[in-house]
Amino acid sequence: MSVSTHRLARETMAFVLAGGRGSRLKELTDVRAKPAVYFGGKTRIIDFALSNAVNSGIRRIGVATQYKAHSLIRHLQRGWSFFRAERNESLDILPASQRVNERNWYLGTADAVTQNIDIIEGYAPKYILILAGDHIYKQDYSLLLKQHVETGADVTVGCIEVPRSEASAFGVMAVDESDRILEFVEKPADPPSMPGDETQSLASMGIYVFKTELLIKLLREDALSETSEHDFGKDIIPALVAAGNAYAHPFSRSCVTSSLEQKAYWRDVGTIDAYWQASIDLTDFEPELDLYDHGWPIWTYSELTPPAKFIHNEEDRRGMAVSSMVAGGCIISGAQLNQCLLHSGVHANSYSELNGVVALPDVSIGRKARLKNVIIDRSVRIPAGLVVGENAKEDAERFRRSENGICLITQAMIDKLEQ
């Protein structure tokens, strides 16, 4: 990192919006917010945004929490408590707490920042970086900050390049050759293309950089508006685009890739299908996301677990895993795994067959169970002999079955089977 980008990072506070439920993940977010959902065997979704900030040199971070935040707050306390105040570092957990008025909840993404203006002013950062806490990607935010300062923008919006044919699902930026945003269109039927490439569009990543002084002024004005929804994407950003000094920053300019990654990686794992696919993709011979990159580590709470263990070596009772990721504390006791991702503490018993299984921590899989293309929530006890993934109609009656045939299994669903 050059001296200039290092200085910019140290003058910046990252504000992570982590209050969303993520309702499209169905029962996976019944007891936890989307940013707290487990991903990748050891980490939580929020760890990616936080790790990007730390690896970029940003050491002042605020995390706004709201929906069922206990799991998220506990994770932040356990895994992100290494900041030192004497080095001008901090991580503030900021639940909706009636600090500004007697309304319980954050009214929108902008209001979540507005209600914590006094905390921001106490640290007096020169720049504010607004981040979503629910996406999987690796990005050097210092390069985004550098562009923001060099252009003199009022706001710089982080954008992901997406095929124009798919861009109707996003908020899309129309930009000129200098990256100035000419128009911001929410889910357009005919998305504007990028300059010089008719096949690509620029979609908002929910990442914004402001000068702190300007942002606070805008937020205070927005808070007084009775017609505003107090949201960055709906109110703050469109107004700045109309004023003519908003710029886009394409993700490709600051994405972090290792020698194993062929292209920029960004995923919104906001549906059952997307979450399962991104998890299983990690088991590929050369996955699109490299979690083994020591140059850009994904920090998290590391549980103290013994190594994974594989036992039994008999015909039909051989503890083995092929094209799979198995976290610490797992015991593969005479079970066969193919393209599976097991988080810590999973116990797969003898004669069970697992194909395309994403198991969250502390799952127990009974003998002779056959599971295909499933997500198993934390601490679920799969009964012996259970078969999932071979009869679509039966699966849909018992479990949450997605459009693509992925089954989500929770303990409540298992309990119903046993009544």
Mind explaining what this structure looks like?
By secondary structure, the protein is an alpha/beta fold. It has 2 domains: 5-283, Spore Coat Polysaccharide Biosynthesis Protein SpsA, Chain A; 309-418, Hexapeptide repeat proteins (UDP N-Acetylglucosamine Acyltransferase, domain 1, 3 Solenoid). 24% of the residues lie in helices and 28% in strands. The strands form 6 sheets. Strands 1, 4, 5, 6, 8, 9, 10, 11 and 12 form a 9-stranded mixed sheet that branches. Strands 17, 18, 20, 21, 23, 25, 27, 28 and 29 form a 9-stranded mixed sheet that branches. Helix 1 crosses helix 6 (141-151).
What is the CATH level 1 assignment of the largest domain? Alpha Beta
Overall spatial form: globular
Spatial extent as radius of gyration: 23 Å
Question: Residue share in helices?
Answer: 10-25%
In angstroms, what separates the terminal alpha carbons? 60 Å
What does the largest sheet look like? 9 strands, mixed
In total, the number of strands is: 29
* Total domain count: 2
Rounded average pLDDT: 94
Pathway: Glycan biosynthesis; glycogen biosynthesis
Family: Belongs to the bacterial/plant glucose-1-phosphate adenylyltransferase family.
Domain Glucose-1-phosphate adenylyltransferase/Bifunctional protein GlmU-like C-terminal hexapeptide: 306-409
Catalytic activity: alpha-D-glucose 1-phosphate + ATP + H(+) = ADP-alpha-D-glucose + diphosphate
